[in-house]
Amino acid sequence: QVQLVESGGGLVQAGGSLRLSCASSGRTSFSNYVITWFRQAPGKEREFVVGISWRGGSTRVADSVRGRFTISRDNAKNTVYLQMNSLKPSDTAAYYCAAKSGGATISANVRLYDYWGQGTQVTVSS
Question: Is the dihedral of CA 88, 93, 99, 103 positive or negative?
Fold first, then answer.
């Protein structure tokens, strides 16, 4: 069992930056999971943003955020970070972190993720 808690969301102007955190607790080692950030805007489906492998050796980034968003993890602190730079109004959404066991593949399929956080809102004003 893994519990995930996101933090760091807020209101920022276009071009600004935010850093989101996803903190984990639970009996299973955090390092056993692929951790991925998804986002969901009102009226839209939840979409893949960026993911990181077990030990941080590989990442996968959506085209819409490539070059602006960076993911990293600190397994000693059981935390994954999402650094978001050059934010755009189109980045406005609730951001969720999710954990996937059973393999090292960073999947964009929400159905493959076992645990989810409650989400943190990011609002980018123009």
Answer: negative
CB 113 within 8 A of CB 22: no
DSSP E strands in the chain: the ranges are 2-7, 10-13, 18-26, 34-40, 47-52, 59-61, 69-74, 79-84, 93-100, 115-116, 120-125
Burial class from Cβ neighbours inside 10 Å (0-12, 13-18, 19+) for residue 63 reads: exposed
Q: What pLDDT was estimated at residue 112?
A: 94
Q: Which two tokens stand for residue 109?
A: 């399929």
Per-residue pLDDT averaged across 34-61, rounded?
93
pLDDT in tens, 78-93: 999 999 999 999 999 9
CA distance 61 to 52: 9
Q: Which token pair is 77?
A: 């602190």
Q: Write out the two tokens for 89.
A: 């109004």
